[in-house]
Amino acid sequence: MPITSKYSDEKVENILAEVAAVLDKHGAGPDLSLMIAGNIATNVINKNVAASQRKAIAEKFAQALLSSIKDNIH
């Protein structure tokens, strides 16, 4: 069953494009971009999720990330 988001694809794509433009402006390569993305995720979890739920949310986030990666190994 597909996951339905409460956010429109257009809104997500617009924000993603803006973030990508900032990273490009600063010449952030893949390693720095991933470090920044990880720091953003950590900050969002630490500031907006109850301490008792942080580990579970981080694990769900990590699983969603793994699920979204395109595996080209056959």
What does this entry look like structurally?
InterPro entries: UPF0352 (IPR009857), YejL_sf (IPR023202). The chain is mainly α. It has one domain (9-68). Helices cover 69% and strands 0% of the residues. It is built from three helices and no strands. The chain is globular.
Which sheet architecture does the biggest sheet show?
A: none
Mass-distribution shape: globular
Number of domains: 1
- What radius of gyration results from the CA coordinates? 15 Å
What count of helical segments does DSSP give? 3
Question: Helicity range of the residues?
Answer: 55-70%
Structural class: mainly alpha
Low-confidence stretches: none
The proportion of residues in beta strands is under 5%
Order of helices and strands: HHH
Q: Count all strands and give the number.
A: 0
Distance between the termini: 24 Å
Average pLDDT over all residues: 92
Protein name: UPF0352 protein DZ860_17190
Organism: Vibrio sinensis
InterPro entries: UPF0352, YejL_sf
Pfam family, one: DUF1414
Compact overview of the structure:
It is built from three helices and no strands.
Task: Describe this protein with a few key phrases.
single chain, 74 residues, 3 helices, UPF0352, YejL_sf, UPF0352 protein DZ860_17190
Write the layout of secondary structure elements.
Layout: H1 9-25, H2 30-48, H3 54-68
Protein name: UPF0352 protein DZ860_17190
InterPro entries: UPF0352, YejL_sf
Family: Belongs to the UPF0352 family.
